[in-house]
Specification:
This protein is mainly alpha-helical. Helices cover about 80% and strands about 0% of the residues. Helix 2 packs antiparallel against helix 4 and helix 6 packs across helix 10.
């Protein structure tokens, strides 16, 4: 039984390696369809809102992932490679936000206290807890990327949202698979406690995005309050899946 479970887990991460390898072609197809040189003909307040938002996300997506990968040294080769490829895709998102800033006529921020604080916190934690923080952050950001894809103020902004939303859907599924492996032997009572602590992190993250990115959300036609509700529902679904010992 244990050998069978280990084999199943290895095949699971082999599939993720295959997904990340083939996903680059989808990236290139989306980017080739965008007229990156088109002018950003936006009202000043909309441009300012998108610049502020993209600057924050560019910083958040741009980590090198070395601390995370070192923590994964005890994982299987397929799991480590899938994690490495996940980090590469997150770095590509940072490049995409930087490209969006160029389109908007702005430059990335050199640093921001919120990004430094989050990075420092992650580095103090173990692999599973760091992955749990990533899942919370990406689950609450997902509704932002979706509304960006659907209702961004111009074609380039919508293309960036589309590309990232498609990737993040798979990133969430990958993180759920990672965390489910560790939760398989966790007692039910402990899972309830984990969810309660995790929920408080998600509420905090959703609140920060709703406040800090409120102008960009409104520029895409979504109120911060509506985003907040969507974000927490997104997190609740992802967390429930991660804390389930078998696939639903």
């Amino acid at each position: 039984m244990a050998v069978s479970a280990a084999t199943s887990t290895a095949h699971q991460f082999d599939r993720w390696v295959g997904h990340f390898a083939s996903n680059r072609a989808r990236h290139e197809a989306i980017e080739a369809s965008v007229d990156w040189d088109s002018p950003a003909d936006l009202a000043d307040d909309v441009r300012s809102a998108m610049v502020h938002s993209f600057q924050r996300f560019e910083l958040g997506e741009g980590g090198d992932g070395q601390h995370l990968l070192r923590k994964a040294s005890g994982c299987s080769a397929a799991q480590r490679e899938a994690l490495r490829m996940l980090v590469v895709e997150e770095q590509l998102h940072a490049e995409l936000f930087e490209r969006g800033l160029q389109h908007l006529g702005a430059a990335p921020l050199p640093a921001h206290w919120s990004d430094r604080a989050f990075t420092h916190l992650r580095r103090l934690l173990g692999l599973r807890t760091e992955l749990a923080l990533f899942l919370a952050a990406e689950a609450v950001a997902m509704p932002y990327f979706v509304i960006l894809a659907r209702s961004g103020p111009d074609e380039v902004v919508r293309a960036i949202g589309t590309r990232i939303a498609l990737d993040e859907e798979h990133h969430l599924a990958f993180q759920i698979d990672q965390l489910r492996v560790g939760c398989a032997s966790t007692p039910t009572a402990a899972r309830v406690l984990v969810f309660m602590a995790w929920w408080s992190v998600a509420v905090g993250a959703a609140t920060v995005v709703a406040i800090d990115h409120r102008a960009a959300l409104r520029a895409c036609g979504l109120s911060p309050g509506s985003y907040w509700g969507f974000a927490l529902r997104s997190f609740r679904r992802a967390a429930a899946a991660a804390l389930t010992s078998r696939r639903p």
